[in-house]
Amino acid sequence: MQSVFMNKETAPTESELAAALGATRDIWQEIVDYTTGLYPRATTKWNYSGSKYGWSFRVSDAKRVLVYMLPRSGFFKVSMVFGQKATEQILRNDISEDTKAKLREAKVYAEGRGIRLEIRDDAMICDVKKLIAIKVSN
Known about the structure:
This protein is of the alpha+beta class. The protein has one domain: Aspartate Aminotransferase, domain 1. 38% of the residues lie in helices and 26% in strands. The chain is built from five helices and six strands. Strands 1-2-3-4-6-5 form a six-stranded antiparallel beta sheet. A hairpin with a 4-residue loop joins strand 2 and strand 3. It is globular and about 40 Å long. The N and C termini lie far apart (30 Å). The mean pLDDT is 94.
């Protein structure tokens, strides 16, 4: 599924993002604020990934992306990649079994396991925050 923002000429504006995300806009901002609160030197940036994927938003530290945020119509996806140490920590943590299952099932690449979670309401916010905290600490 593509981003709702496909025009490579211009990054999405705040008003376009709010219109696209609808009721999930506040949850998007909560995740950005939480991540930058845990890692105050984090940078935020829109990134155009090509005509197949469109625009995504990244919160990064100096060396890596902490969280990818992928806007859709009325919702968004949060994507993260975890190395082995972080994966083991997640599987020992009090994160939902559904999220743990997604991580276990994820294909393993050199940089780790990547998972994407659909955010349609605030039901996943606790898991997302725990995942971000683990990502920042590893």
